[in-house]
Amino acid sequence: MCQIRLDNVQKRFGDNPILSDIQLTVEAGEFCVFIGPSGCGKSTLLRLIAGLEDTSAGNIHIDGVRVNDLAPAKRDVAMVFQSYALYPHMTVYDNMAFGLRHLKLGQAEIDRRVRAAAESLHLAALLERKPGALSGGQRQRVAIGRAIVRQPKVFLFDEPLSNLDASLRVKTRVEIARLHRSLGRASMIYVTHDQTEAMTLADKIVLLKPLAGQDGVPSIAQVGHPLELYHHPRNRFVASFIGSPSMNFIDATLQHAGADGLACSAGGITLPAAADARTLPAGSSVTLGIRPEHIAVGQGPLKGRVIHLEHLGEHSYAYLETPLGATPLIAKLSEQQAAIGDTLPFALPAPHLHVFDAEGDALPRLSRHDVTPAALATH
Amino acid sequence: MCQIRLDNVQKRFGDNPILSDIQLTVEAGEFCVFIGPSGCGKSTLLRLIAGLEDTSAGNIHIDGVRVNDLAPAKRDVAMVFQSYALYPHMTVYDNMAFGLRHLKLGQAEIDRRVRAAAESLHLAALLERKPGALSGGQRQRVAIGRAIVRQPKVFLFDEPLSNLDASLRVKTRVEIARLHRSLGRASMIYVTHDQTEAMTLADKIVLLKPLAGQDGVPSIAQVGHPLELYHHPRNRFVASFIGSPSMNFIDATLQHAGADGLACSAGGITLPAAADARTLPAGSSVTLGIRPEHIAVGQGPLKGRVIHLEHLGEHSYAYLETPLGATPLIAKLSEQQAAIGDTLPFALPAPHLHVFDAEGDALPRLSRHDVTPAALATH
Amino acid sequence: ATLRLECGAPGPGQNVCMDSAKEWAKKTGNEVQFVATPNDSNEQLALLQQLLGSGSDKIDVLQIDVVWPGILANQLLDLKPYSKGAEKQHFASIVANNTVAGKLVAMPWYIDTGMMYYRKDLLDKYHLKAPTTWDEMTAVAKKIQGAERAAGNDKLWGYVWQGRAYEGLTCNALEWVSSFNGGTVVDAKGKVTISNPNAAKALDTAAKWVGTISPKAVLNFAEEEARGVFQSGNAVFMRNWPYAWSVMNQDGSAVKGKVGVMMLPKGGNAGRHAATLGGWQLAVSRYSKNPKLAADLLLYLTSAEAQKYRAITGSFNPTIPALYKDPDIIKASPFMAELYPTFASAVPRPSTVTTSKYNQVSNQFWNAAHDVLSGNAKSADALAQLDGTLKRLAPAGFVAAK
Amino acid sequence: MTSQTLTSAAPVRPSSAESSLQRSRQRTAWLLVAPALVVLLAIAGWPLLRTIWFSLTNAQLGDLTQLQFVGLDNYIGENGVLRDAAWWSAVANTLRFSVISVTLETLLGLGVALLLNTPSRVRTLLRAAVLVPWAIPTIVSAKMWSWMLNDQYGVINVLLQSLGLIDHPLAFIADPDLTFFTIILVDVWKTTPFMALLMLAALQMVPSDCYEAARVDGVPRLRVFSHITLPLILPAVLVAMVFRALDALRVFDLIYVMTSNSRLTKSMSVYVREQLVDFQQVGFGSASATVLFLVIVLFTAGYMAFTRRRMQGV
Amino acid sequence: MKKHPVETLLYYVAVALVMVISLFPFFYTISSSLKRGNELFSTSLWPAHPSFSNYASLFRDQPFGAYLLNSVLVSGGAVLLSLGVSVLAAYALGRVSFRGRGVLMMTILGVSMFPQVAILSGLFELVRALGLYDRLGALVLTDLIFTLPFTIWVLVTFMRELPKELEEAALMDGVGVFTLIFRIFLPLLLPALAATSLLAFIGAWNEFLFALTFTISPEQRTVPVAISMISGGSSFELPWGTIMAASVIVTVPLILLVLLCQRQIVSGLTAGAVKG
Ligand SMILES: Nc1ncnc2c1ncn2[C@@H]1O[C@H](COP(=O)(O)OP(=O)(O)OP(=O)(O)O)[C@@H](O)[C@H]1O
Ligand SMILES: Nc1ncnc2c1ncn2[C@@H]1O[C@H](COP(=O)(O)OP(=O)(O)OP(=O)(O)O)[C@@H](O)[C@H]1O
Ligand SMILES: [Mg+2]
Ligand SMILES: [Mg+2]
Questions:
Q1: Which CATH number do you get for residue E256?
Q2: Which residues are in the ABC transporter domain (chains A, B) (predicted)?
Q3: Same domain for E45 and E167
Q4: Strand duo B187-191 + A31-35: pairing
Q5: What is the ipTM of this complex?
Q6: Min CA distance, A10 vs chain B (Å)?
Q7: Both ends of chain C: CA-CA distance in Å?
Q8: Does the pLDDT at position A334 exceed 80?
Q9: What CATH number has the domain spanning B4-240?
């Protein structure tokens, strides 16, 4: 049982509000991922939970106990630091074993745990090295190893995989997922900027947004299951942040809103969308959003000229100049070849269009993109 | 003009060979990306070029001049360190301006450059902070800013975006591409473990492989255009490293090889593949490779049971248990819903199959996946 | 019982002292332990004061400098009740020096006075007589220095002495002033007498030496520096204490056998030969647990028997006039007989009368002298100023008794 | 002493509402300082108080039990320290000595530290050699130098003459024009190793990747030194300077041995010792010791205020 | 990276210069200690007939070996004690912000501002009150008066330079404050520690005034006191040769100590700790 509950937590550095009004519960055994733009306070939030920073206001409960005044060591959490924070004078082995030594575990048990962690992190050959003689990725793995040997109630990971190569990243990611499953009731809080990681690992994503010096706005933009944030972003910030490349946005004017959808016009072209805009008067400014992968290229009433192409092997992204607006639309092309300068037909399928009002809040979508129980069951 | 040529370069730390037999030319104005598993020597290679480490053997030429004995400063390179290497006692502004001050640029010019870089890296509000009061991503951006204000002949980037969030990452990536284009003839060497970055930015990818203590093996596994490495991996190592999730491999036995392809059997099932295996005798062990996105799920003669699902919003990956081998195949599912436990029909299309011999070397592919001139033209 | 005896720092000097003490111990069946003190007399005094000031019984018998009786009188035992008149054998001037406010606080042990060493061989070479006045000495020194330098011996100086700002300069300057009949800075009644023309003349005479017959460095010379120059054969005259005699006549000395000794010159024909009185006394700590025994040891160590032994083995000058006629002693150190008059008439520094202020007086005096010597002040001004300072120290004049 | 420039190092987390977490951290801090405080109070508290008390009396070394309270007479009375010209000349001598010697030592120490920090084969040897002057007891080295600098049989004069640098021997420690600088020279010779060693330690702790970044940027070495090395080792340099200055302001042995009690070079400590020991004036001596203490406090406080402002100004 | 030959040359010239200046007086000390009699007053750099008689007389007259041992005990004791105490204090003062920290630092510094001679008599009473008079313990204790402020201040400075992430990592590992100080910080502070303790050791080694005042019996004598007590035939005669021999003997252990500490003095240890 290690539920973590943050109650109206605030944090300021000097006069600068960094986090405000954090209301969050991480259930026992849950895998929670923090994402958000660089500098929005993810590491700070993690450090608050770890007890490395004091909250400026609000309470943190772990297991129902208020831990605001509890030393980090007493909270039974392990943390992987974004900056590694390895002990430079100790070997890799000692770095990992150090935190165990005072737990009275017995030499054999310590050795077993360290070697097991080293094995799964491909560090076995490096155990006798000191951090100074390791590569960036290797250091990061040592930092991860140091956390997992501890087997605590709560894991805090601050961008643990950011320096790893893709294949090791996938392996370590799977390893962490496996660890999470095997430890059963240990909660994990995980900061990442990698959407794939966030999507694949998270039971719950917490998207933070920067306060930019204002006070009073809650820091959390949206909390929910990954697919929920993907399919039902609560506002434009969430929509643009989740997904890579980012969602395309088109400024439009509401023409007509009904129970079965709306119509709006952008660049003189009328576009239908499956959203409920009945709360807005006709003529309101709205923003349409569509993800690159949802633009149906190859057929359709609209035309766009390819001005830039990005090849990613399996697929590519085309930057399309369209009459809909000044910013080019990014569309995903699978397999199909295109060249710069080509003009391609495309459509913006109404069910895939997101609609945001002038404040940036999303209008309710009419098409179903629910997180199915089956999808959830995998976690 | 700033061609970089490495001639048979070697590097060892003590007795440990880290890099061997590096034969590489980066043309003037080229964007070259180093990738490879963690610890394979990417940073070391970059540091060799920068002049921060001495080569153990071989020569490095920049602009036709042998620079082995030239101080880093004389090489006109700028570098972004994996560890940032910010000056802890200077503000962000000074960190960026410091390298310019001795160039006799004039205060106004320095200020202009620093502010321009800060603007494009979203650092403008942080100019007066010191590194200790920055988040991980902010520090990384400062490190990038410090390099770009210098406008040197050669840029060396060591994982410059690893701590940035997806949207900033894309923006900065585009910024770097723009910078590269605008600087015209400046060469860039860029270490990353992000395949998307590698694919989108690189004119040339250099894939390094770890020596694992052996000597004599060249460190470079393959050099070429991104799509070439994607479509025509020279061996199993390259095939498995490029692409994420990694290519699926299936052990098989060659049954028959002809000019128009081959047939082989795996798990008792006969599979045709479009590769030229006429050099191998029938009965040889081969390995088949297929990328998750090329497995045609939904139709076909084969059946697989879904044992794990990863949801990524737009698509998901299914882990399929098949009769072809013990390791599950990873297949990409677009849109379509599946649940754990479902049995799905699928096919392994012959033109997409890669075939490797017992040594892991790729057999010539018969299907065309060339890097088209049009595709190349975008860079 | 066990007595603790402090008789100097470890070295040849202490060994001689230990011999006698062990002799006593054997005779009386007691034990004597030796306490060492630093070689530097300032540090020695500081240490003793610290120890005695705390009432420590770690020392029973101690050696004290000739200028200390006034300073330490309060911590020392009156020896009168124990001496049974033994002090009468010693030079009266020293006994007077050691008597503070009617108490005999120390017994004379050995005596030191300033004396003039000269190079017999050089004087002979130039057929010159040993000078008797400072002016004569200056002339002789100049002549030999000039001639020798012309002959290529360009390191030779006429006269070396102790010009450093320290107690030694007080001794030197007191000799000059006294030899010109300029008094002893503070007279026996406690009156400050230093500001007088004779004293000024004396200092002027000395100031002229610096840079002419004496190297400039003499302003930072103590005994050993002077001896170093003289013993290397680089000086014609040297003012020093008796200890230099035996050292300079050891094997390996460049001037062995070439050195003559005479009284310090007079200040002009009307002047007198004046030599500052130095030397050491033995005293008993007031905090001694065995005062009687300690006094007995002290009396033995200062007895004629012990002094004779010391004179012969260590050329320590006895404080008992009778011993200067002892043939054994004269055989060992012929100069002792020659210089007897010097010892007998040595000028004591004004320490008895100034008591605990002696160091201040001396300090002011040597600083004034040093200023004159280094050319920073005119002698008359310096002395007038000194006079004022000393009078401020003791507005009512110095009074010996407490 | 100085508000830290190194942010990465600053432990200070300003927080408006002190949590009990922070309070317990502070409690721990006090517990950890306690042993040091207890020891210092024990060994320094009583003696210091006593000295200050004596400074208000007319105590004499001969008998410390007989004393009268005289108030501030020893300080500002007619014959008080503050009215004694000799005292003020000692103050001037000492300040001059301290400023010049500490400055020289810092500069030379930095140079030597940089030499020591350069990897080379002779480094080990050099490091041992450099420490020798500091290792020889002051009394001995002062005497040694007096000996060597003597104009009659001093080896330095002979060497300088044979090198043709001077044409006649100089009386380094007797000539009033030279003594002061001779003393400074010897002090510099003796204590430069102290500075060098501390600065070397500071240099060792500068992160090497900063240097690498500067090397790649082609920043000239002098600039690297002045803008990276120096600011990063500055805190250590300042502390070293404080301790050197404290020592220099109390300089005793060196001057005492080399020039005895000459007024020209008398330092405050020599003055104090003279009063306290040679002149027996415990009361007056204590007063001058206390004034010496105050002078040092003033000097250090001024110095720290100055460096703090400078460091914040950077 | 190969260095420019001119640079190398300059380096070696500088090294040679520093070596000569530092070592010449010591060399001359050695040379003097081998001279006898009148040779002492000659300016020859090396005696024509080196003799060890000064050393012989040194060890004959006094148990110099025992004095050396005393000095080692006193200095070693004082340094160990001050390091032990000051490392703790330095952590608190350097890494925890609490009210009164500045005042505390200044107080600690203030203690070392009084001239030693002025507090001598107070200390003397203290030593006697503690029953330590004429014991080496008295010297260990009183030497703390100058070693302790020094070590505290220097260590505070260096303590502050360590990255705060390290402390936090240790905090997360749940180690106690002592483990943190002694197992994490101490090894990282080795260069500073070595330098500080060496300097403090030498300070205590050369301490004279306390050693002279607080001990009296020969069994408790330290080397500087012993040197000051070397005398010649009379109180005026300075036994220069013997003193030089003694100085050589005092200095040699310190040089050995420096050589021993070599490795600790130079070790860039923080590499790889954190990024940024
Ligand atoms: N100073 C050193 N001494 C010994 N080995 C070292 C040293 N520095 C690096 N290595 C080893 O050299 C290898 C290459 O290191 P390098 O930093 O170049 O790797 P990398 O490819 O940049 O890895 P990453 O992606 O993890 O940053 C690693 O295995 C590392 O352990
Ligand atoms: N000690 C400090 N003093 C003042 N501001 C600080 C301090 N530490 C962090 N900040 C600021 O607080 C904000 C949040 O920092 P934090 O490290 O939590 O960001 P983050 O979300 O982890 O970012 P990243 O993804 O770049 O690591 C940043 O804007 C940073 O500049
Ligand atoms: Mg962060
Ligand atoms: Mg790297």
A1: 1.10.3720.10
A2: 4-242
A3: no
A4: unpaired
A5: 0.83
A6: 17
A7: 34
A8: no
A9: 3.40.50.300
